[in-house]
Amino acid sequence: MKLNIAVLPGDGIGPEVIAQAVKALKVIAMEFDHIFTFDYGLVGASAIIKTGNPLPQETINLCKKADAVLFGAIGDTKFDEDPDAKIRPEQGLLGIRKELGLFTNIRPIIAYEDLLNKSSLKVKQIKDTNILIYRELTSGIYFGARYISEDGNTASDVCKYERFEIERIAHQAFKAALSRKRKLTLVDKANVLESSRLWRRIVKEIANQYPNVKVNYMYIDNAAMELIINPRQFDVILTENMFGDILSEEASVIVGSIGLLASASIGNKYAMFEPIHGAYTKAANKGIANPIASILSAAMLLDHFGLYEEAALVREGVDKSLKLHITTPDLNTKYDNISTTKVGDFIEDFIQNPDETNLN
Amino acid sequence: MKLNIAVLPGDGIGPEVIAQAVKALKVIAMEFDHIFTFDYGLVGASAIIKTGNPLPQETINLCKKADAVLFGAIGDTKFDEDPDAKIRPEQGLLGIRKELGLFTNIRPIIAYEDLLNKSSLKVKQIKDTNILIYRELTSGIYFGARYISEDGNTASDVCKYERFEIERIAHQAFKAALSRKRKLTLVDKANVLESSRLWRRIVKEIANQYPNVKVNYMYIDNAAMELIINPRQFDVILTENMFGDILSEEASVIVGSIGLLASASIGNKYAMFEPIHGAYTKAANKGIANPIASILSAAMLLDHFGLYEEAALVREGVDKSLKLHITTPDLNTKYDNISTTKVGDFIEDFIQNPDETNLN
Ligand SMILES: CC(C)[C@H](C(=O)O)[C@@H](O)C(=O)O
Ligand SMILES: CC(C)[C@H](C(=O)O)[C@@H](O)C(=O)O
């Protein structure tokens, strides 16, 4: 298969972790006789520094020409601390989600057997947890009208949803549930928000078309608790943009580190793959950033193009690295100083020689 | 002291748990020679059934005449399942918060020594956690304009904040921090929301007036994770309405049961005290509802009127009940069938005879 991949490393630890994902994809291409090409573009704070724009038109063009986008991370503490900044790295990420129409964000939450005791939660609590979060990604309060009064004393944001925006992701989530445990939980705040009531109404309608999927409805406050006290109750979680942001980052505690969480953002024409962690400016260029979320995002990319065997091999490599403690310091209690690159190298070696790779 | 308390038991388990809080207050009045009077009002689904209105004018009048309000819970699964209901129990609760101007909601999160192993989290994770959440309660997306299009296919909610709404609660939160560990965390989503940037800007200004308080800023998605992986980093958390709703219910996992979380809602003229749990219709009238959140809310009421010794005694009663496993089934792994009333009776006895109360 020929795949033209746009790579946007972004800020902070983005470039380091994305380099490992690219390495994994390159060795997959070699082993399976695919042709993957990689074209790099600017986004986020690094794009602001070089071009004044967090999402240069050139980057958009690059992504639209590509078969898929591999995204690192954006953000910079400098901007976080300045609420008055008009140009912000996040505009790069939000802009690209909107420009490419990536309305469905899929975030798998899997409690890895080898990491169970790394979690803040008790092992018995999280064992066998396997959740797929479907987060709406191009609407809601992220993209509604914003307002700041001239005197700077009043500000507002609008959370708006339209029927078609809910329907298209809901169908995808229901279909995903069909191939899993056939359970779907809609998370909303329908006891307060009109937009949540729209979600609930539409999901109820659509549920009739999927009689084999058991649907339940949960308020976001309650879901934030239930995710911790009984995560195994969930199969597919469907939710709007902001609640999905909160729940998915919270869910990282089940997996043991946010450095493990991959995601796919899918639209009708384009697809982007990115770790859910941020740019962690403080950890940049120290070789301590966990590349696994990026590498698993590359595996989601492979799955997206039907390269299931390839994706499975990448995941096996990740599993093996976890089993053998070839992991960055966020996860490692056995070895010191296993660097970002070293983890990437190990997984690259594994892909070449799945049966021989061991600690060396 | 003479206190006239408006009691709004509400729906589901509300009446059962509030009865225990009233019992505790009555025996406190007796032991300390106070005169507490209790007047009951309707709110929520039970008010809808009897009057068609989730917040009858009579109830508002009752609360405005009173020195404080003791609130149970509202909600009914019947309404939860019907996104088309125009009249909803929640309007009773939101209406009363607005009518009484209860803009500051205070929710203490304390990891009780005797309950550490009840939590889904590892003991070492939560030990010594003591957080005070300051949640803005009368503005934000809870009270912004709502819209639903005539064809029912578009819906929106507005999250709006004004300077004075942020300032008044921020000052209270900073003052609280001064009497604690002098740390304040503002939780927002300033990388996306204009209203969050307003919060961040104003809190930064106000921080200058409290040089002894260490302030930090955290995005809500990150906070939802940090609350679980490192809860001890927090002292006072200040946040807007919706984020406070989510974080405080999530934080119940630290305490071990949402049945333990009390809250105070304070305005310039009025004050209301309520457990943060909901109506749990399914658990109603079974004698299994945990009354401790309500009893601790009564303790917060006593504190509010400067009755510190009285409040402390109520809390000691609660501690003792936890130590001796006189708790409802949500917490109890030792005894079966300790009912809501039995817990209330135990704490009542303890208040009368702090030195003699034991398991009987
Ligand atoms: C960086 C930020 C704008 C982004 C979001 O809120 O969507 C991030 O938290 C995420 O989850 O991808
Ligand atoms: C019942 C509901 C409207 C309420 C809220 O969201 O504020 C509740 O969850 C709470 O936290 O007091």
TrEMBL record, chains A, B:
Residues 4-347 form the Isopropylmalate dehydrogenase-like domain. InterPro entries: IsoPropMal-DH-like_dom (IPR024084), Isopropylmalate_DH (IPR004429). It comes from the Bacteria. The keyword Magnesium applies. Keywords: Amino-acid biosynthesis, Branched-chain amino acid biosynthesis, Leucine biosynthesis, Magnesium, Metal-binding, NAD, Oxidoreductase. The keyword Cell membrane does not apply. Its EC number is 1.1.1.85. Belongs to the isocitrate and isopropylmalate dehydrogenases family. This is 3-isopropylmalate dehydrogenase. It comes from Algibacter aquimarinus. The gene is leuB_1.
